[in-house]
Design goal:
Layout (H helix, E strand, L loop, with lengths): L5 H7 L5 E4 L2 E2 L7 H10 L1 H7 L4 H4 E4 L2 E4 L8 H17 L9 H21 L3 H15 L3 E4 L22 E6 L2 E12 L6 E4 L14 E6 L5 E5 L22 E12 L3 E4 L5 H38 L5 H26 L2 E3 L3 E3 L2 H26 L2 H4 L3 H4 L5 H7 L7 H15 L2 H12 L4 H10 L3 H12 L4
Parallel strand pairs: 1-10, 5-8
Antiparallel strand pairs: 1-2, 3-4, 6-7, 7-11, 8-9, 9-12, 10-11, 13-14
Helix pairs in contact: 5-8, 6-7, 6-8, 8-9, 8-10, 8-14, 9-10, 10-14, 10-16, 14-15
Bound molecules: flavin-adenine dinucleotide.
C-alpha cells in the first residue's frame, strides 16, 4: 500500500474507539458534525499526496513503494527542508491550522530511533527493532498518528514520585509476561480522536525511584480502556464568509485517559530505564519544535499580508507608523523562517541514520515566534481598526434594506466596500476570534512553554566560553 486516499483514511476511523463529546459517547466519529470537520481537515495530508501539483513534495520512496513524505526519516538538511515545505503547504491549505496527523507521530518515531539505539547499546535492551517495526507498519499503512506526552502533572513543583496522587503521571501499574498495564491521563492530546494509533512518551526526565513512570509505547486508538474526552473549543457553527479561516478547519485535542490499559511488550519502547526518559522527551522536542515552526510559517506570513492589505484598503499604507509596523511584522516573519531554515542547515547526522535539526537554533526559532506573536497580533489589530469587532454581519451587508448604506459607509481608500469587509472578516478570524485565542495559547504552550524553549536553547549555548572571553577582556586571570 504505502499511500492512503482521503476516503480510506476516513473509513479507517470507524473502529469502535471510545470518544466523548460534551458528555455523550460518540458512536462513530466520522458521523459527528464537529469531529468530522477535524477529520476532513486532517485528510488534507492525504489529498495533497494524490494531487499532481503536490504529489512530488508529499511523497517519497521506501521499501520499493511510494510513501508519505512525512514517513521519510531525514538523512540530510534537504530532507528537513522538504519536510518543512510539506508542513507549510498543508497548513496553508488548512488556512493556518496544521494537519498534524503525520507530523507529530513521525517526530516521535525519529526520537525513538535515536534513543532506542543508544539504549540497546548501553543496556542490551531490544527496543530498536520494535521502533523499526512500528515505522514499517505505520509507513506501509500510512497511519495517522497522535502523540501523548503531556501528563496531568498535579503539583508542578514536584516530580512523579512526589505527587499526593500517584496517578498524576502515567505509570505502569502491572508488569505481566506478555506486557504492561498503564494508568494515568495525558492532556491536550492533539488529533487523537482522528488518528489510527497513539505514541506515548514521558513528559520529563525521571530519577531513581520513578521507574514505573519511565514508560513509552504505542497503541491503537481503539484499545480497551483508552478513553478520549474531546475538547469542544472552536466547535460552534460559523459562516465561511465571516470566518474564512476557521469555518471549515479545526484540530481537536483530547483529555486522554488510560483507564488501566494493557500494552503488549512488542509495543513498548521504555519500561523503567529512568535515565532515558529525559533524552526521549528532549529528543522528541528537537523534531517537534521543527514541525511547530514549520506550521507557523503560513500564520506569520498571513499576519504581514493581511496587515498590508488592510493598510492599503484603509488608505494608511504611506503613514510612518504603519510602515514601521509593517516593517516589524515583515522582519518577525522573515526571522522565524530563516531561523528554521538555519536549524536544518546546521543539523547533524546521528545514529542510527537520523538527521537532527540543531537544538539551539530550532528552540530559538520557536521562542522567537512565540515571544513575538502577541505583539504581532497587536500591530495587525492596530492597522485594521475597530471594525474588527463591530463590523456588520454578512447578512446585513447583503440585505436590500441596509446593504446600500453599508456599501456607502464601509468604503475605504481602495477596492470596494465588500473587499474591505472581507479583508476585515479575515483579520477578525485571524487576530480577534476564538481561532486567534487558540493560536495564542498554542504559541505559548504547545510544543512546550516559552521557558522550556529558553532552557533547551541556553543548555546548548556556550555560556562558559562567553564568560571566559569576558574574563579575558576584563583582565581577570583564569
Ligand atoms: C493546542 C494545544 C495542543 C497540544 N497538543 C499536544 C499533543 O498533541 N501532545 C502532547 O503531549 N501535548 C500537547 N500539548 C501540550 C503542551 O505541550 C503543554 O501545554 C505544554 O507543555 C505546557 O504544559 P501545561 O499545559 O501542563 O502547562 P503547565 O506546565 O502547567 O505550565 C503553566 C506555567 O507553569 C510553568 N511551570 C510548569 N512547571 C513548572 C516548574 N516545575 N517550575 C517552574 N514553572 C513551571 C510553565 O513554564 C508555565 O509558565 C498541546 C497544548 C496545546 C495548547
Amino acid at each position: 500500500m504505502g499511500l492512503r486516499s482521503p476516503e480510506e483514511y476516513v473509513a479507517s476511523l470507524r473502529d469502535g474507539r471510545r470518544v466523548m463529546f460534551r458528555g455523550a459517547w460518540v458512536p462513530d466519529v466520522t458521523e459527528h458534525a464537529v469531529l468530522r470537520k477535524a477529520i476532513d481537515h486532517a485528510a488534507i495530508d492525504y489529498r495533497l499526496g494524490e494531487e499532481a501539483a503536490t504529489r512530488d513534495l508529499f511523497t517519497a520512496q521506501a521499501d520499493g513503494e511510494p510513501i508519505s513524505r512525512f514517513y521519510k526519516v531525514p538523512e540530510s538538511a534537504d530532507d528537513l527542508l522538504l519536510r518543512m515545505r510539506a508542513i507549510e503547504t498543508a497548513t496553508f491549505e488548512g488556512r493556518t491550522v496544521v494537519t498534524l496527523i503525520h507530523e507529530i507521530g513521525t517526530d516521535a518515531i525519529f526520537a525513538l530511533l535515536r534513543v532506542a539505539k543508544a539504549m540497546d547499546r548501553a543496556l542490551g535492551t531490544g527496543y530498536l527493532p520494535r521502533v523499526e517495526a512500528l515505522l514499517r507498519q505505520a509507513r506501509h499503512e500510512d497511519w495517522a498518528l497522535a502523540v501523548a506526552q503531556t501528563d496531568s502533572k498535579g503539583d508542578r513543583a514536584k516530580g512523579p514520585a512526589g505527587q499526593v496522587d500517584p496517578d498524576q503521571y502515567l505509570r505502569i501499574v502491572e508488569r505481566r509476561p506478555d506486557g504492561i498495564v498503564v494508568r494515568g491521563a495525558k492532556l491536550h492530546t492533539s488529533v487523537s480522536v482522528n488518528a489510527n494509533a497513539m505514541i506515548v512518551l514521558p513528559t520529563r526526565a525521571m530519577r531513581a525511584g520513578e521507574e514505573d513512570y519511565a514508560v513509552s509505547f504505542w497503541l491503537p486508538i481503539a484499545s480497551e480502556g483508552l478513553k478520549l474526552v474531546a475538547s469542544p473549543y472552536l466547535s460552534g457553527r460559523r459562516s465561511p464568509v465571516e470566518h474564512p479561516l476557521s469555518a471549515e478547519h479545526k484540530m481537536v485535542e483530547s483529555f486522554t485517559w488510560f483507564d488501566d490499559v494493557f500494552v503488549p511488550w512488542e509495543q513498548v519502547f521504555l519500561a523503567g530505564e529512568v535515565e532515558y526518559a529525559g533524552p526521549l522527551a528532549l529528543g522528541f522536542v528537537d523534531f517537534h519544535r521543527f514541525t511547530a515552526v514549520s506550521y507557523k510559517l503560513p500564520l506569520v506570513d498571513l499576519l504581514v499580508g493581511s496587515a498590508g492589505l488592510l493598510a492599503q484598503l484603509n488608505g494608511i499604507a504611506g503613514a510612518g507608523h504603519v510602515r514601521d509596523k509593517l516593517g516589524s511584522l515583515a522582519m518577525y516573519a522573515a526571522t522565524v523562517r530563516r531561523l528554521l531554515e538555519a536549524s536544518a542547515l546546521l543539523g547533524a547526522m546521528e545514529e542510527p541514520g537520523v538527521f537532527v535539526p540543531d537544538t539551539l537554533t530550532v528552540n530559538t526559532a520557536k521562542y522567537h515566534f512565540a515571544h513575538g506573536f502577541h505583539e504581532a497580533l497587536r500591530d495587525v489589530q492596530d492597522i485594521a481598526g475597530g471594525l474588527l469587532v463591530t463590523a456588520p454581519a454578512w447578512d446585513d451587508f447583503t440585505s436590500d434594506d441596509i446593504g446600500p448604506a453599508l456599501r456607502k459607509y464601509l468604503q475605504g481608500a481602495k477596492g470596494t466596500a465588500e473587499e474591505r469587509l472581507r479583508a476585515l472578516y479575515l483579520v477578525t478570524d485571524l487576530a480577534v476570534s476564538d481561532l486567534s485565542g487558540y493560536h495564542e495559547v498554542l504559541a505559548v504552550h504547545a510544543e512546550g512553554s516559552l521557558e522550556a524553549e529558553k532552557l533547551a536553547a541556553t543548555r546548548h549555548f556556550d555560556l562558559a566560553g562567553k564568560i571566559r572571553q569576558a574574563r579575558h577582556l576584563a583582565g581577570i586571570a583564569e
